Amino acid sequence: MNGIVKSIDAIVRSTLLLTISLSFVGGCSLYQYGPSSLYRSDIRTVHVPIVRNETFRHDLGPRLSLAIVTEIESRTPFKVVSDPAADSTLLVVLTSENKNVLTETSSDDPRALDATLTARADWVSRRGEKLFQNTVTPQSGSVISFSQDSRFVPEAGQSIDTAMQATIEKLAQRIVSQMELRW
Question: Which residues cross the membrane (predicted)?
């Protein structure tokens, strides 16, 4: 009798172990966790051409391109490559650049200003599929517009160049954030 109980106990244990093992292998095979779960698993490489610049400040396109590449490399599992035949291409166009005066001194000198950049971005797979998932209009397939500004105060020693660099970095962060999958 004692031998039968031991063999039944061994069968129950092995069945339980097998069930648990199969649930880990089969049930969770598509589940992703960690930061990589925020991004598409079918895309590994991204081609980022130099940002096309429609403004009068010629240096903004290369500066935004560098900021976008840095953001993609540091925050996503994607690898930025120079090959146009990459898994995907991120196309960005700078459409406007403004400097707006917010406050002035009594002698009409600018006291506080905003440096603003506006851009359009489109992320496309090698097959032509639109990859951005805009939450406002799902599956719209349209280019997403971005606008970003940074405040600066010349009286405090801040310049348009430092404000514009801060704006470029924030704009790059916002564009790369749109590469995340929506839940």
Answer: 12-34
